Fold this protein.
Amino acid sequence: MTTQPAPAAPSAPYDLLYSQTEEELRAAVRALLTDRCAPAGVLARAETGRPHDPELWRTLAAGIGAAGLLVPEKLGGAGATHREAAVVLEELGRSVAPVPYLTSCVLATEILLAVACDNADAAALVAEAASGGLVCVPALPLTLAPGAPLPAPVHDGGGGVLSGTVTSVADAVAADVLLVQADTGLYAVPADRAALTPRVPLDLTRPLADVTLDGAAATRLADPASARAAVAGALLSGAGLLASEQLGLAEWCLTETVAYVRERHQFNRPVGSFQALKHRLARLWLDVASARAAARAAADALATGAPDAPLTVAVAQAYCSGVAVRAAEECVQLHGGIGMTWEHPAHLYLKRAKADSLALGTAGHHRGLVADFAELPAP
Amino acid sequence: MTADAEDLRARTRALLAAHPPAATAPADFLRARFDAGLAWVHYPEGLGGLGAPRTLQTAVDAELEAAGAPDNDPRRIGIGLGMAAPTILAHGTEEQKARFLRPLWLGEEVWCQLFSEPGAGSDLAALGTRAVLDEEAGEWVVDGQKVWTSSAHTARWAILLARTDPDLPKHQGITYFLCDMHAPGVEVRPLRQITGEAEFNEVFLTGVRIPDTHRLGAVGQGWAVARTTLMNERVSIGGMRIPREGGMIAPVAAAWRERPELRTHALHQRLLELWVESEVARLTGERLRQQLAAGRPGPEGSGMKLTFARLNQEISGLELELLGEEGLLYGDWTMSRPETVDFTGRDAGYRYLRAKGNSIEGGTSEILLNIVAERVLGLPPEPRDDKDTAWKDLSR
């Protein structure tokens, strides 16, 4: 048998478990979300067209200190890693929480951290974001994937006066500051200098808006090359950590569905005693257990800066997107009629899962990246 | 006294110093290793172990391997190591442990498993092989037929389940025996299978006499004893550590790289999906091992065999399509009698056909899904009416 050397083999296996500290963080976040982010409340808030809950955000970001996990202590953060941020995202996925964590505390924070050592404004912004006092959102389409060409940058009319439109920006409506990639570099723009056109999102819990700048004065944070590198790095982290959100979401769907089929009786027995359903749920459990390993590997690879982190992130995204969608679809189906109703929260999870599968690159896009990293070229 | 990691390292070095592998006959080295308690460190002293934590074995194995020490060919004696030994250790008498464990580990005596029958596969407890006590002789007389018996043609001993009281419901009235494969009345016939080779056997038992001293556990308690065996069987499947792109995906990825003329877009998509799933399965297995090492075993073990069975079948199917014309060919249909099974060995056609067994042997995927659903997820069992009926009154 021919055996190729394993491409980009990691020097040591990833730590795929959860540490005691991570479990304590999880317990704190879960307690908060159980208390303040029940599905009925999420739905009621989404129906008002303002899904974000600023009070929940304050407690999560500042009270628990989740906002600054990725930020070093010298910049005002907690000096934790992607492993801890991943645990927060698992819990946020489990409760489809409408908070700008992925956008502000992962994507924007990673962009700012990448340029903060050369730019005092960026350092100040990331410190403020880390304290939870400021929501900073990258003005990038949510579908933008690592490894994909960046969209045409916003035009700088001279001296950091920016004009242009970016579509499908997640959480822009909650932003205090937007990070804009312009042709002359990376800029911070106060959100009130941008015109936002809210769109009707498939995922009611992560609002989308088109952002238009029309001669908006902005503060320059980095040159074009640094800006591109910072955005690319942030997209990699975002995609890797999104896998943990997808894992948490899938876990909720599995747990709720198992509980439901144990209680629901048809034909004089619990429907969960029928082998056809048991096998589907057993397979789903296997998929979720596998998704956990994939998501943990991605978080650990990002935390340790492993050389094969891009491959491990691509593997996690290529796998976890599909598991989350399947879990949500099974949740709707196995709840029967109730799963199709507006009042049952299953639809919130399905909408988040499907939108997440488009966010930061589809599974197909990430398989394409796997082809590159693992040297399995297309014909 | 319980040995710790440092103690084991010292003992391993002492063993290597006293019996340098290069200058020692392999059999002598293995005997010395067993007697030093470094065969399976979690076994008791005197039985090849030191009562140490099981997790410490890996370090001992690695050090011995690095020193070029011979191994006892675990694949050839896998049933003995993986199933017979833990069951004898858990349920055997002191005489049985002393008699059987050492030659088993040394590979001097190969074991096979006489459990499955033509009418009792997934429904193993329905087995009908009879054992009747000849009280005067202190011997059991066994009649019946077993099937799917790996290694029966090389085995010296077998673990055997037989019915000793047909008036009881099927899970009761079963007794567990250690059967001498050289006893009169034991007939082994090759069972040729889908690959053309005869890796398995049918075993006919006609008036086979087993002394009562070779009964393992109490009369009628065979099902409880068998659960030890079955639990260990599933633990040993899918527990291997594999490198990235190891296992069944390796030859397909290699062919893809080396033979660009075979590539198509449709195959590329499927290859990438399966490559990703193989990597995720590898990570899931790695996570399971880390949980075990941390003393927090997770339920993932019950699922790994399901995953590998499905992946092996899909990947080997893809491989034939990738090979095109070559995929129409088969290496060799001559009946052979392999001593071990190499799932990934031979040619692509063999891999495809052999992988079909992965979802049947050691518990079908359907049964394993039931186990996951009921034991991990807590879903209720399907109603069944065979549990409280006397075995002799069940329809067959």
